[in-house]
Design brief:
209 residues, mainly alpha, two-stranded antiparallel sheet
């Protein structure tokens, strides 16, 4: 119950943020943040479903919902950071990442027919809640590279470069805060990969909002 409550609070805060950003004529940057928050909300809704699921089929469905958001969160964040730091558009790169996110989503939802994303899926009832133990296939690692690692790496590179070259102290301070929050999210994701959090808890959906 406590874990579900935390996720619900995070979702409500994100919904409030969207309502504030959507007032009046939104700028391109605001629209990117809104889409980013929507993707994060979907990710968190999927995780809530995973937390309350009691059978294998329900957990698989919940994970598929999570991927509706998580496939695009790093991409949307990268788009926002590049725009905020006034980096020139890279249409080809942005298109490749968007297509890879979409293909990853399709693979997750159709995995039972081709097993390109998961080699094996085991339902276990150990830990804080029933969950799946997954063995990944090539599709997952392609998703990891093109839809997770690359967009986050580009975001960090752009942020650090902007911090170094920015001459205005106020803007540099803002960039430092954004960079610090980004590093925090990446550290939490890395710790989740290492199974540092107890009982299989995944803090990634929460910190990405």
């Amino acid at each position: 119950i406590a874990l579900v409550t935390i996720q619900i609070i995070v979702i409500l805060v994100a919904i409030y943020a969207i309502s504030m950003l959507a007032r009046g004529d939104s700028t391109y940057a605001q629209k990117l943040i809104i889409f980013f928050l929507i993707a994060g909300i979907i990710h968190n809704i999927g995780y809530i479903l995973e937390l309350v699921s009691t059978c294998r089929a329900d957990v698989i469905f919940a994970i598929r919902i999570e991927y509706l958001g998580s496939c695009f969160i790093p991409y949307l964040y990268m788009m926002f950071i590049r725009h905020y730091c006034k980096r020139p558009e890279r249409r080809l790169m942005e298109t490749i990442f968007a297509v890879c996110g979409l293909l990853s989503l399709v693979m997750v939802w159709t995995d039972e027919w081709h097993h390109l994303f998961y080699k094996e899926v085991r339902f276990v009832q150990t830990g804080a809640y029933p969950h799946l133990e997954l063995e990944h296939e090539i599709g997952f690692y392609l998703y990891l590279f093109f839809s997770v690692i690359s967009p986050w790496a580009i975001s960090m590179f752009v942020l650090i470069k902007a911090m170094v070259t920015e001459k205005r102290k106020k803007k540099r301070n803002i960039l430092s805060i954004i960079c610090g929050l980004t590093i925090t999210a990446l550290v939490v994701m890395f710790l989740c990969v290492l199974d540092v959090f107890p009982n299989g808890y995944d803090a990634t959906p929460m910190v990405l909002l």
